[in-house]
Design goal:
By secondary structure, this protein is mostly beta strands. Helices cover 6% and strands 43% of the residues. The protein contains 6 helices and 48 strands. The protein has a 22-stranded mixed sheet that branches. It has a 5-stranded mixed sheet with strand order 3-2-5-6-9, with no helix packed on it. Strands 10-15-16-13-14 form a 5-stranded mixed sheet. A hairpin with a 3-residue loop joins strand 18 (288-302) and strand 19. The protein is elongated, with a radius of gyration of 31 Å.
Length: 993
Amino acid sequence: MRKKLSLLAVALVCLLISSGRAFAQFENGSIVGTVHDSSGAVLPGVTIKVTNSATGIVSTRQTNDSGDYEVPALRVGQYNVEATKQGFAASHATDITLSIGARQRIDLTLNISGTSETVEVSGVSLSVETETSQRSQIVTQYQTAALPLVSRNYSDLIGLATGVRQNLSGMSSTSNTGLVREGSFNVNGQRSIFNNFLLDGMDNNAYGESNQGFSNQIIQPAPDSIAQFQVVTNNETAEYGRASGAVVNVAFAQGGNKFHGRVYEFLRNTDLNAVGFFRPPGGQKPSYNRNQFGGNINGPIVKDHLFFFLDYEGFRQVRKQVSTATVPTVAQSNGIFSKTVYDPYTGTPYAAGTSILNSPNISSSARTMAGLIGGLGQSNATTSNFTTFQRSNNYTDKGDLRLDYTIDSKNSVFVRASHLKTNATDFPIFGLPLDGGSNGKQRILDQQIAGGYTRVVSPTQLLDVRFGFSRTRAGKYSLSIGTDPGFTFPGLPTDPTVAGGIPSIGITGFNSLGRLATNPQFQNPSLLNPKVNYTWVVKNHSLKAGYEYQQIWMDVQDTNPLYGGFTYAGGFSRNYVGGKTTETSTSDNTFADFLWGATSQYNLSSYFVAQLRNRSNFAYVQDDWKVTPRLTVNMGVRYEYTTPYWEAQNRQSNFDPSLAASNPAGAMVPVSSTGNKYGYKPDRDDFAPRFGFAYSADDNTVIRGGYGISFSHYDRAGSGNILAINPPEALFVTVSQTAPQAGGSNANYVRMDQGFPSSTLTFNPLTANVTYIDSNRYRDSYVHNYYVEVQRSLAKNILFDVAYVGNHGLKLLQLANLNQKDPASNYARPYPTYGDITVALHSAYSHYDALQVRYEQRMVSGLTLLNSFTWSHALDNAGASLEANTPSPQDIRNLAADYSQSEYNQPVVNTTSLVYELPFGRGRRWLNTGGIVNQVLGQWQVSAVNQVMSGFPYQITYTPSGRLPGLGHLGQLPRFEPLSPQSCRGPIAQRAR
C-alpha cells in the first residue's frame, strides 16, 4: 500500500512541477475551440481574446499547431470572444454564456478580407456538450431569482435535475420552527449523505455526526446571491470526490463595473391565511407571521480590477400551529378506568369505575403529574382528545461579503466571509412542567471564510490555490432545564446545564410527557480545507491534477437520555396468575402502570463530550483528450484517504468479541492500550477511476457516456458508528424490568419514585449498549456509476436528451445487533455476557436503473423551460440511518433477506419549471415604450414549478402483543428479534428529531 501511495505522490509531483497541469477549476469554466480559415484548414498562432462583459477583465491565449485554444478558470457569466491574426479579418463571438464547470466550445473562422465578421455562435447559452462526459444540470441565476421558492432555499431547485428525489427529512411542511434538513436529496437512488456541496470551490458540507435536523450545508446562500449552480449526478470528473451522489457546485455572485442593488421582502401573514381543513381550538385562525427580507449591493471599487458583493437576509417567523395529541382522559387522570385493573405489586383488584388513587402504592410524582394532565382541558374522546395552539419562533440572520481583485493580467485573488446565526424555539405542547418532548431552544452559528489565488503561469499553464475555514456551533436545549416541577427523582444529574423538569416519559397509547430524550444535544464541527490545482494544455490534451487536504475538529455531546427516561409498556396492571395473563393490554393498563410507577424500562446516560478528530487527503489526475474533432475522451483517477474519527484524549474503546466470555468488562478495549488511536484499521485502498466520452455524430447530436467509482467517507449515523461515544466513557444504560405481580422480583424491582439507583451509571455489559467496528470487515462505502445518453440540439438554445443511468453501491453502512438472539440456538445470544451490541457493518448494497429524459430551453421567445422526467427502480438491503425507517436488519445472519425495494424508490418523477417574460413593455412585442406605462404594465414575468410523482414507499410492520419464551417482544417478523428501538444507540434510538 505504501508503494502505491509513493508512486501516486511521484506522479503528482511530476505533473505539477514539470507538466504543470492540474486543472481543477472548482466552480469556474473554460472556453475552448478551434480556429479555421475559410477553406477549413486549422490556423495556428491566432490570438484569442476573451472579455468578461461585466468586469471588463481580459484573458488572452494563442491557438496551438492544431488551431486549438483553451481559456480556463473563467468565472460564470457573459463573454465576448475575439480572434485575430495578421492578414485575416477579425472574427467575433458575442454574448456567450459560460456556465459553472462548463467547457464551452466556440469554434471560429477567419476570412482573408478587410471586413470584420460576427459569427453565428453569438447569443449561445445552451448547446450540446461536446467536451465533457460529466452528466449534470445547470441552474442559472435567472432561474434561482425568478422561480418560486417558499423557503427561499436555493437547494430546493436541486430537484429540477433528473434522478433527484427530495428526502422526507428535507421537507419543511411539518416543522414548527421551519428548521429542517435543508438540502436532503436522494440522487439516483442513493443516500442523501452521499452528496457533496461546494461553494466557491470549497467544501461546504455540514459535518455534524447526526446533523441535528439542520441544513446539510454550512452556508446556505440566498438565491439572489448565487451566480449559478451545477448539479453533477453521474460520472463527475476526477477533480470531484468525497461522495458518490450528486456534486452540488455553487458559484457565489461577484460584482462588476456597474453598481447594482436589490431589496426584497417576502411576507406570510395570518390575515392572508386560510383557517385550514381541521377546525382549530375555539374556531380561532392559527397565527402564522413570516417575514423574509434583505437585499444585496455590488459594484466596482476600482474599475476593471476590484469588485465587491455584499448581501444580507433576515428571517422572522412567529407561529401558533394547531397541534393534536392523545392524553389520558380526565377520568383516567383521576385513576378511574373502564376495566378492572390490578396493583402490579400486590395483585389487589380495583373494579372499573373505582379510583385507584387511594392505593398505598400510587406514585406521588405520578399523582402530581396526573393532576396536571387532568387540567389540560382534553375532551372525553380516547384518542386525539387534546388540541392546542403550539407556539414556535425562528429568528435568523445571515450575510456575506465577497471581494474580487484582478492584480494584473496574470494574477487575481478573491476572499469571501459568510455568517449565519439562528435562534429558534419550539415551545412545549403541554406547557411546563409536562412539556411533551419539545425541542426547546435550537441554536445555530455558522461561519466561513474562503479565499483563492489564481496565476496564469504561461498561456498554457494555470495555477489555482484555494483555502477555506468553516465552523458550526449547533445544538438544542430543553426549556425544562433549570425548572422545578415540584418533585424529583433520586440519581438524576444536578449539573445546571442538564438538570430540570420531568424526565422523558413514554406511556403506550399516549403522547410522551416530560423532556425530549435527546435533549440537550450539541455538535460543534470545524473544518480546515486548503487545496491546489494546476492546469496544463498540451496540444489536444487538457491535463489536470490537484491535491486537497481536510481536517475536522468536532466536539459532540450525543448521549441520551441525559436526564433519564421511563417507559410504561408492560401492561402490568392486568390480572396475572403465576406471572401469566390472557388479558389484552389497553391504554387503561399502561396509564394505570404509570400511576403506580410500575415502569417496564428505565434509561439513563452519562454526560460525555467527545472531542472527535478526522483528516483527509485527496489527490487526482485528469486528462480531457480531444482524440478527433468529433470525439473527446475524459480519463482520470482519484485517490482518497480519510481517517476514521479518533478522540483527542484517546477516550475511545472498541469491543473485542474474543474477550466477551472470559472477561466481559475487559472486552471493551481502550485504544490507549492498542497503539491504534482509531480502534480499527482504516481503509487505505480508495482508488477511484473515471472514464467518459463525448462523440459528436453531427453538429447537433452528441452521444455521451461514462463509468466511474466514487467513495463516500461520511455516514452521519449519530453515535451508532462513533467509537468515542462508547462505554466506559459514554454510557447508554437501559434497564428492562417486570413488575412483581407479572412475575418479577420485589427485591430487584425499581419503582419510578425510587429514581435511578446509584449503580445505574456503571458499566454493565448486560444493560449498556456498546458499539463495535470489526477491522476485518471495515471498508469505505463506494458506488459504481455509469450512464449513456443521446443529446440533441433542436434549435438555438433548445436541448433534448435521453439517457440510461445506473449505479451499484457496495460496502454501505448498516447498523445491526451483533448479539441478536438466534432461533437456531434456542434463542440464545451469541455473547451471553452482553446485551445488545450495535455493530457498524459496511456490508449493505444497492442497485439503481433509470430512464431519464430532459427537455430544456433558455429564453426562447421569452420562455425558459426545463422538464425533467425520471422512470427508475431502486433496490437495497439497508437505508441510511436517520433518514430510513428500517436501519436494523431482521436477521444479522441473513442480510440478503432484506434486499428489496429501497425506501428511496419513487418510480416516476416529472418536474417542470418555467419562467415566461410577458410580452409587454420596453423592448417587447407590445407596449414597447418607457415611462409610467412600462413601470406599471411592462417587464412582468410568470414563473412556476410543478412536480408529478409516484407515491412514497409504504412501510408495513408487524408487532405482535404476545411473547415467545426467551425471545421477548417480536419485531417485524416472528422468527427474529431486531434491535429494539428503546435499547439502541445512534440512529436507531430515534435521534432524527
